[in-house]
Design brief:
The chain is an alpha/beta fold. It has 17 helices and 12 strands. The strands form 3 sheets. Strands 2-4-5-7-6 form a 5-stranded mixed sheet, covered by helices on one side. The two termini are about 40 Å apart.
C-alpha cells in the first residue's frame, strides 16, 4: 500500500472534481501528465478515462454492505458523490448530511486525500512519479505533443522518417525499401508522435542486429492504417521486443503493435485508426466577415470545410440544412444572440447531438457549458487552440 502522495495531487483532484464535466478545462489539466501511465494516450481518451477512474475511486469509498445509513463512514463517499457527481449545492449537501459547512469541508478534504492515495496505488510501480523521473518526463512530453492534434497524411510522414534513418541503416548494413498503397492515408492525431514512434521502432530494429533487410509497407485496410515492417532475418531469429519508450509512444496515439513469425524472418504490424477522407463540415455563426475569413485560413489545409453564416436569424435553418460535424458560435450577435441560438440547437431533437463550440470575448465558460456547449474558446483565438478543439469534438 502506497502512503506517500505527491505534493499537489490532492489540490489537482479537487480542481478536477470542480470542473468534472468541463471537457475543455480537463483536456489541459496537469493531472493528465501526472497520471498518464494510468490514463493512456490521446487527450480525448485520457479525459474520459480520468472521469471513469475518478468515479470508480469515489465508489470505492462507499462503506461495506450492511453499514448503517447513519454511520459516519458514509460521509466521505456522500460528500464527493452528491457534491461533484450529482452536482448538489453546498446548502443541499449540508441538509442531506445534517452537518455544517466546516464539517463538510473536513470530510471533503479527507475524502480527496483518500482518492489521491487510491490513484497512487493504481499506478504501476515502475511509473510512480517519485521513483521514475525519466518515465514521468517522457509522459509529460507525450502529453504536450498529443495536444498538437490535426489531420495528417501518414504516408508522407513515413517517407520523411525513412529518409532520416537511411544513414543509420547503411551504417548497420540493413537494406530499407518503402512500399505504399496509392492515395492519401489520413490519421487524426499528432504527426510528431507518429514520426517519433515509427522512427523509434525502425531505429531499434536496425540497431538490434536481428535483420538484414526491412520492407516498410504502408497500406489502408477498412478503417485502419497499417505500417507493415517485414524483416529478412537469420534463421531462428524472432522479432525483438520493442522498448518501453516506443510502446508508450504507440499507446499515446492509440496504435497497436502485432508480431508475426515468417518462414524467413518476421513482421511487425503497426496499426492506427484511419481518419475519413471526407472533410469535416464546420458551420461558423459569426457576424464579422473578417473572422470568418481568418478561420477559413486556419482550417483550409486541415481537413475541414468551413461554412460561414453571418445572419443569426437564418443560422438554425442553415445548420439543419448542412447538419455539420460541429458548430462554432459567437455570442454577441443580434436577434437572436448566441445564447438563444445555443438553447435552440440543444432543444432541437435532431440538432442537439451536434457539438457546439462557443467563441466569445466574454468570460462565460461555466454558463455556456451548463447550456450544453461542448467547449468554450475566448477571443482572440489562436489557430492551434481552434484546431485542437475541433479535433477533440469531431474525432
Amino acid at each position: 500500500m502506497i502512503t506517500d502522495v505527491p505534493e499537489g495531487l490532492a489540490d489537482e483532484i479537487y480542481d478536477v472534481l470542480t470542473h468534472f464535466y468541463d471537457y475543455a478545462y480537463l483536456s489541459r489539466h496537469p493531472i493528465l501528465s501526472r497520471l498518464r501511465p494510468m490514463l493512456g494516450g490521446g487527450t480525448t481518451g485520457a479525459v474520459k478515462e480520468l472521469r471513469r477512474v475518478m468515479m470508480e475511486a469515489i465508489e470505492a469509498l462507499r462503506p461495506p454492505v450492511g453499514t448503517s445509513p447513519t454511520d459516519r463512514a458514509w460521509r466521505p463517499y456522500r460528500v464527493l458523490h452528491l457534491r461533484y457527481i450529482l452536482g448538489q449545492e453546498l446548502e443541499e449537501l449540508q441538509e442531506a448530511l445534517h452537518i455544517g459547512a466546516r464539517q463538510v469541508q473536513r470530510e471533503q478534504r479527507r475524502a480527496i486525500e483518500a482518492l489521491a492515495a487510491a490513484l497512487m496505488d493504481k499506478l504501476p510501480a515502475d511509473d510512480l512519479p517519485d521513483g521514475q523521473e525519466q518515465g514521468n518526463a517522457l509522459w509529460t512530453e507525450i502529453s504536450i505533443a498529443s495536444e498538437e492534434r490535426r489531420l495528417f497524411d501518414a504516408a508522407t510522414e513515413l517517407e520523411g522518417v525513412l529518409q532520416a534513418v537511411s544513414v543509420l541503416a547503411e551504417k548497420h548494413g540493413v537494406t530499407l525499401r518503402l512500399e505504399r498503397d496509392s492515395g492519401r492515408m489520413l490519421v487524426a492525431g499528432s504527426a510528431s508522435l507518429f514520426r517519433q514512434f515509427v522512427l523509434g521502432t525502425l531505429s531499434y530494429l536496425i540497431r538490434s542486429s536481428l535483420t538484414e533487410a526491412l520492407v516498410v509497407h504502408m497500406m489502408r485496410r477498412a478503417e485502419s492504417l497499417i505500417c507493415a515492417l517485414t524483416a529478412t532475418a537469420p534463421l531462428q531469429e524472432r522479432a525483438p521486443e520493442l522498448p518501453a519508450t516506443v510502446l508508450a509512444l504507440a499507446q499515446a496515439q492509440g496504435a497497436t503493435c502485432l508480431q508475426e513469425e515468417l518462414a524467413e524472418g518476421w513482421r511487425l504490424l503497426l496499426t492506427w485508426p484511419a481518419a475519413s477522407e471526407q472533410p469535416y463540415k464546420i458551420v461558423l455563426v459569426e457576424d464579422n466577415a473578417d473572422v470568418i475569413a481568418l478561420f477559413s485560413r486556419y482550417l483550409a489545409k486541415e481537413g475541414y470545410q468551413l461554412i460561414g453564416v453571418q445572419e443569426s436569424a437564418t443560422a438554425l435553418e442553415r445548420i439543419a440544412e448542412i447538419h455539420p460535424n460541429a458548430v462554432v458560435l459567437d455570442l454577441m450577435m443580434k436577434n437572436p444572440d448566441g445564447w438563444e441560438l445555443l438553447q435552440r440547437i440543444k432543444a432541437d431533437p435532431v440538432l442537439c447531438q451536434i457539438p457546439v463550440i462557443v467563441c466569445s470575448v466574454l468570460d462565460e465558460r461555466e454558463l455556456a457549458m451548463s447550456l450544453g456547449a461542448a467547449a468554450y474558446l475566448r477571443k482572440p483565438i489562436r489557430s492551434a487552440a481552434l484546431l485542437e478543439c475541433l479535433s477533440a469534438v469531431c474525432h
